């Protein structure tokens, strides 16, 4: 089984893992007719069947049980701080499946001329707050309280010795719910990774239903009639948020290097990386000269790229690939939509630039604490 562990460690390399997810994602959550055609042709719509979730859960449980036999895997997933992540993985998979299962079921009902599963005819189908709703909430409260009590007794709180300013933990990790932000800090300046990008991702996820509106299909699950909004929401939530948390928890080890889930955390592992700015690539590597003293001349290439990305790309897409969307959304909603999307896409773009050419910043003006 050693070869299996090696395969898992290889696939867990962020370059391979992230690239695979980005390529496969639009075929699993098709945002357009072309992807929908291949989604059906490849049989990926069967992922949202009851049989698929049973197989997925059995497979995940079997993988975790097998992994617990490995000391390195066990050390990661059973660490008290990381236990919520293990639960998060199962819960995200299950509830993503549940929502898509209900959406596909409703799509089939609507195509057959029937009402959606959530449809109710008032007042005949009315559900009373008392006793129906309150009774269910009370039972849920009791069960969850008992679960948290057992968890708190059975799992030691990860309280360590008092902080020692002369000895930092390696790796130094934030709480699990902030690990996505900590992973962003690898690729962006703190103001971008800690404030701008998380805010725009959250605002973008909240705004998506209002940008891609379809009032006739509100109040029930449906994927076919809200494909674009759901696909983009899933990408922002699953790939740009949940996946970064999992990467930061499971795959980041000493010195913030990448390690496979079955790989020993060697504190002596050092990767020879020299991250350089775009201005250094242009002037020092390509032009064989020193950096200009003038800030504007030094960073003009990065400024032109960023201006082209945010000012030229949106109208260009409105005239070409996103022409139909532009006509459907209108100027205001399209502008909000495209700015949110291309801003969120700066994260995977910057990740690839770091992995391929060790790019640190496209624009670097440390004199005024501005880096991008």
From TrEMBL:
Membrane-spanning segments: 12-31, 52-71, 83-101, 133-154, 191-211, 232-251, 300-318, 330-349
GO cellular component, one term: membrane
Cited SUPFAM superfamilies: a domain/subunit of cytochrome bc1 complex (Ubiquinol-cytochrome c reductase) (SSF81648)
Annotated PROSITE patterns: CYTB_CTER (PS51003)
One Pfam family of this chain: Cytochrom_B_C
InterPro entries named among the record's database cross-references: Cyt_b/b6_C, Cyt_b/b6_C_sf, Cytb/b6-like_sf
Localization of this protein: Membrane
Domain named Cytochrome b/b6 C-terminal region profile: residues: 114-248
GO terms, molecular function: electron transfer activity; metal ion binding; oxidoreductase activity
Claim: Transport is one of the keywords in the record: yes
Keywords linked to the UniProt accession: Electron transport, Heme, Iron, Membrane, Metal-binding, Transmembrane, Transmembrane helix, Transport
Name used for this protein in its record: Cytochrome b/b6 C-terminal region profile domain-containing protein
Organism: marine metagenome
Organism lineage: unclassified sequences, metagenomes, ecological metagenomes
């Amino acid at each position: 089984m050693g070869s299996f562990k090696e395969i898992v460690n290889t696939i867990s390399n962020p370059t391979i893992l992230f690239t695979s997810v980005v390529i496969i994602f639009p075929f699993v959550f098709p945002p357009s007719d072309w992807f929908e055609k291949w989604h059906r042709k490849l049989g990926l719509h069967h992922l949202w069947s009851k049989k698929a979730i049973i197989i997925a859960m059995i497979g995940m449980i079997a993988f975790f049980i097998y992994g617990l036999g490995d000391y390195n895997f066990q050390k990661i997933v059973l660490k008290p701080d990381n236990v919520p992540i293990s639960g998060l993985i199962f819960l995200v998979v299950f509830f993503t499946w549940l929502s898509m299962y209900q959406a596909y079921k409703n799509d089939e009902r609507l195509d057959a001329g029937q009402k959606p599963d959530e449809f109710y005819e008032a007042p005949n189908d009315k559900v009373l707050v008392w006793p129906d709703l309150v009774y269910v909430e009370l039972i849920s409260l009791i069960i969850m309280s008992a679960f948290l009590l057992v968890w708190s007794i059975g799992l030691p709180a990860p309280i360590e010795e008092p902080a020692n300013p002369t000895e930092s933990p390696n790796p130094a990790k934030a709480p699990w719910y902030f690990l996505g932000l900590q992973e962003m800090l690898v690729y962006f300046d703190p103001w971008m990774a800690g404030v701008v990008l998380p805010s725009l991702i959250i605002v973008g996820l909240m705004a998506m239903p209002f940008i891609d509106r379809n009032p006739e299909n509100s109040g029930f699950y449906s994927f076919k009639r809200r494909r674009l909004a759901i696909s983009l929401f899933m990408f922002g939530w699953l790939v740009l948020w949940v996946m970064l948390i999992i990467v930061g928890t499971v795959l980041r080890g000493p010195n913030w290097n990448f390690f496979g889930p079955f790989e020993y955390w060697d504190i002596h592992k050092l990767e020879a990386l020299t991250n350089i700015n775009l201005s250094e690539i242009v002037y020092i590597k390509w032009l064989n000269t020193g950096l200009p003293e003038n800030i504007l001349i030094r960073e003009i290439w990065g400024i032109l790229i960023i201006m082209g990305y945010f000012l030229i790309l949106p109208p260009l897409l409105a005239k070409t690939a996103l022409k139909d969307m532009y006509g459907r959304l209108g100027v205001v909603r399209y502008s909000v939509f495209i700015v949110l999307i291309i801003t969120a896409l700066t994260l995977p773009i910057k990740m690839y630039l770091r992995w391929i050419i060790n790019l640190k910043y496209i624009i670097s003006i440390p004199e005024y604490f501005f880096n991008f």
